[in-house]
Amino acid sequence: MKKHPSMLVPEFIREIDPYIPSRPDSYLMAAYGIPVLHRLNNNENPFGPPPAAMETIQSLNPKDMAIYPSGDAFDLRCHMAEKLGISPDQILCGNGANEIIQFVISAYCEAGDNIITADKTFAVYEWVAEFSGVQARLTPMKDHGFDPEAMLAFMDERTKIFFICNPNNPTGTFWDKETLQKFLEAVDGRAMVVVDEAYCEFAEDETFPDALTLLDDHPNLLIFRTFSKMYGLAGLRIGYLIGQKDPVFDICRTRIVYSINSAAQKAAMAAFGDKEHIEKTKRMVKESKNWLKTRLEGMGLDVIAGEGNYLIAGLPFNDQLAYRKLIRKGYMVRTMTGFRYPNHIRITLREKPLMEDFAVALEEVLEERGYPRLLS
Ligand SMILES: Cc1ncc(COP(=O)(O)O)c(C=O)c1O
């Protein structure tokens, strides 16, 4: 019997609401009647990629676009491996760290398995698990951070992967080396432990761990990193994971070959490890973080700021409403209800003058809603 196409979709997929990405900036500017739109929503680097990567992008030959890229980012992996002092076989690249989340879940999980992460973190671990038919167990946070005990308590014989966002998006909390080590010892190889270090290059705290130093002792440890944040290459889509050779080989079974375009591979190679770019970006983020945190607290708002190029602020009203009010003033922030922080917005830390203008705009929104100007 003929069926409606939707009836061919498994029921657990039909229950999932598709993620609706925001409209292009040009569309939003026209819709809201604004001449500029400052992106404070996606934790992008306002400086763009490092200079060498910009040059590489500019020097690309359009004719070369007829050629398939390296299917496994061979040159890039060799380059990164040499700089990191590991083997190229310990690195797997993907079309953004997002794609790698999918590879890892596909490699380790089958129906009936579960993954464990926190309830207030980057949601893609949970989403990929769910549309893969795998249960996502979400543990409550402790002091806005991942709680190792709660995560272990949720573990059972069907737990295949723990996802730890270090530092956490959106709270900026992190596990130090000792916490990570103890957790790995407690898991004792019974499940994979993913440490997502998408924002590790921004870390200022001296106790922020170098997870690479734990790799030799822990074959079940996988480290995710990306070129989207510090390296300003979000538009080219490239991320990578590091692990011991055997797990990386296993994950290669489920990867999509040729998913990383040649421009991304070349630009990432030019960008990787540019210390000057990293230091310049960190200086800007640090200055803006300290300033904005104080300014927002002065307005009477609760602020959660840790590592990373973002902070979150609690508002006395709905975050979606704040989004709409702020976008009319030219600022796009990230609403946090989806991250289970209702009435909070996440703000990407950009250059201080822009943060100053943003603070004035937010203050006006608070006033429009009847909240007194707390700061003179
Ligand atoms: C914690 C975390 N992990 C992974 C990603 C995905 O990064 P990519 O752009 O490489 O897919 C993001 C992006 O926002 C993130 O915040």
TrEMBL record:
What keywords are assigned to this protein?
Amino-acid biosynthesis, Aminotransferase, Histidine biosynthesis, Pyridoxal phosphate, Transferase
Is Nucleotide-binding set as a keyword in this record?
Answer: no
Any Pfam family the entry gives: Aminotran_1_2
Start and end residues of each Aminotransferase class I/classII large domain: 39-354
This enzyme's EC code(s): 2.6.1.9
Class in the EC hierarchy, top level: transferase
Q: A single Gene Ontology molecular function, please?
A: histidinol-phosphate transaminase activity
Could you tell me the Gene Ontology terms of the biological process aspect for this record?
Answer: L-histidine biosynthetic process
* CDD domains documented for this protein: AAT_like
Could you tell me which residues carry N6-(pyridoxal phosphate)lysine? K229
- This protein's pathway: Amino-acid biosynthesis; L-histidine biosynthesis; L-histidine from 5-phospho-alpha-D-ribose 1-diphosphate: step 7/9
Cofactors demanded by this protein: pyridoxal 5'-phosphate
Reaction(s) catalysed by this chain's protein: L-histidinol phosphate + 2-oxoglutarate = 3-(imidazol-4-yl)-2-oxopropyl phosphate + L-glutamate
What family does the database annotate?
Answer: Belongs to the class-II pyridoxal-phosphate-dependent aminotransferase family. Histidinol-phosphate aminotransferase subfamily.
Q: Which PANTHER family match?
A: HISTIDINOL-PHOSPHATE AMINOTRANSFERASE, HISTIDINOL-PHOSPHATE AMINOTRANSFERASE 2
Subunit info here reads: Homodimer.
Question: Which protein are we looking at?
Answer: Histidinol-phosphate aminotransferase
The organism of origin for this protein: Desulfobotulus alkaliphilus
Q: Which gene encodes it?
A: hisC
